[in-house]
Write a structure and sequence with these properties.
Layout lengths: L2 H18 L2 E6 L8 H13 L5 E6 L16 H12 L2 E7 L7 H8 L8 E9 L4 H13 L2 E3 L5 E3 L4 E2 L3 E2 L4 H21 L3
Parallel strand pairs: 1-2, 1-3, 3-4, 4-5, 4-6
Antiparallel strand pairs: 7-8
The chain binds flavin mononucleotide.
């Protein structure tokens, strides 16, 4: 094998290794009783796992029991656990639901509960609502920018009317699978690139 072949091969291996080690959290943005976000998160995870390009896991805000920022001395174990979890991830898929044209208070609070742990990472958004959760997703983009999280362009937007039966049982239209994969393609590429910056 010639010098350039070896050089090329070692850089390709390095890229592959880096991609294989990427950890992506699928963050469920809602916490209310009867929420739909677990169905959407599991669907994204099942599509993501078929790709074999990163490790994907569900990150459920409910598991962290975060207090409302500023109302305690900050010693709750959930706060440290949340920061550790975010710190361990290279990228995020935010499962976003529209509440009064924005994201949930729970997600905003959770965003505010970490700082450096978010920096120089990448994110994709999957949203739902009466108009695909588009307004909430756009609000989230502003927050992500402030937290130095690079958010990818492709954004699957699910309709409460056509992608959920009776607004309850998730039955996504086939076309969304392609959009989720396109979003993940962009996310994995940016998450890998940003790992080199940290
Ligand atoms: C407090 C509240 C406000 C809402 N506001 C909107 C809204 O502005 N636009 C919209 O499309 N849907 C709105 N909805 C409907 C939610 O998007 C819908 O109930 C969705 O299932 C919520 O996500 P979840 O089931 O994961 O909690 C609202 C729901 C709640 C509970």
């Amino acid at each position: 094998m010639g010098f350039f072949d070896k050089l090329f091969r070692s850089s390709t291996n390095k890229e592959e290794e880096q991609m294989a080690n990427l950890n992506i959290g699928i963050i469920l943005g809602s916490t209310r009783e009867g929420r739909l976000s677990p169905q959407v998160g599991e669907w994204v995870k099942s599509l993501a796992e078929k790709r074999g390009d990163a490790n994907y896991e569900i990150v459920d805000l409910k598991d962290f029991d975060l207090p409302f920022l500023g109302t305690t001395d900050g010693s709750e174990p959930g706060i440290a656990k949340w920061n550790e979890k975010i710190g361990s991830l290279d990228g995020f898929v935010f499962i976003v639901q529209e509440y009064n044209h924005s994201i949930t208070g729970a997600l905003k609070n959770a965003m505010d509960m970490a700082r450096e742990a978010w920096f120089n990472k990448a994110a994709g958004i999957v949203s739902y609502g009466s108009v695909g959760g588009a307004r909430a997703a756009e609000h989230l983009r502003g927050i992500l920018s402030e937290q130095s999280i690079a958010h990818v362009r492709t954004h699957p937007a699910l309709s409460l009317f056509t992608d959920f039966e009776n607004g309850q049982t998730f039955k996504p239209a086939q076309m969304h699978e392609g959009t989720v994969n396109e979003m993940l393609e962009q996310l994995v590429s940016w998450a890998g690139a940003l790992k080199t910056v940290r």
